[in-house]
Amino acid sequence: MMKLRWLRAPGIFRRFFPNLIWRYSSTAKKVYLTFDDGPIPESTLWTLNMLKEKKIKATFFCVGDNVRKYPELFQQIIEEGHAVGNHTYNHLKGWSVSTKQYLDNVKKAAEVIPSNLFRPPYGQIKRAQAKQLISEYKIIMWDVLTGDYRKDISPEECLSDALKAVRPGSIISFHNNLKAEKNMRFSVPLLIDELKLQGYKFDVCQ
User: Fold this and answer.
1) Which member of 36, 37, 143, 148 is catalytic?
2) Is 82 one of the annotated active-site residues of the chain?
3) Residue from 82, 87, 91, 175 carrying the catalytic annotation
4) What are phi and psi of 27, to 5 degrees?
5) Where are the domains of the chain?
6) E-strand stretches of the chain
7) How many Å separate Cα 126 from the centre of its chain?
8) Which of helix, strand or coil describes residue 21?
9) 36 an active-site residue?
């Protein structure tokens, strides 16, 4: 059976939400590595150690309740020079809740995540929700959705497909959750090494 994969959001989504950031300037060979859903000890600590070894910075879109549970790990992300962003307090699906519920949850997360960056979990956000948030946040989506969380994708496929999709200005989405652990740990170090060989630099979202 053919595996349906959207490494990039369909163009209609991007046109529907033109004020969201899907990709940065393509004038330089620069990419933006991002990690969603943490911090959790099982994944985030490994990620931080790997990034330190590779001497690059990334952006972590954190779930507020995880920050509450692991404040020292969240502080480590900041102290090591990475950027952080709000990923709601309870990893809410924007399409499934009211705008008020969503905004209240983002506001609750903001109490423990000092950042003007926001990424909607699952990429799900209503226009009314985005309209309210855009005055306070830069809403960061992605140019390459690696699918590291998918059980029907092998680590090798995850890496290969991501490398094919990367281009100058790409925002690359990985995850710090248990579902993504196997594919993420395999793919990220090799992706970093290959992109460096291709002349890419890494930067944080801002």
Assistant:
1) 36
2) no
3) 175
4) -75, -15
5) 21-203
6) 30-36, 59-62, 83-86, 117-118, 138-139, 144-145, 171-175, 201-203
7) 19
8) strand
9) yes
200 CB-near residues (< 8 Å, 6+ apart)? 29, 30, 31, 166, 168
Displacement of CA 25 from its chain's centroid (Å): 18
- In CATH, the number for domain 21-203 is 3.20.20.370
**CB neighbour burial string for 67-80, b if at least 16 within 10 angstroms, e if fewer:** beebeebbeebeee
**Token pair of 189, please?**
């170090």
Residue at token pair 């490398």: 163
**Digit-coded pLDDT (tens) for 66-81:** 999 999 999 999 999 9
**Amino acid at site 202:** F
* Interval 120-168: pLDDT, tens: 999 999 999 999 999 999 999 999 999 999 999 999 999 999 999 999 9
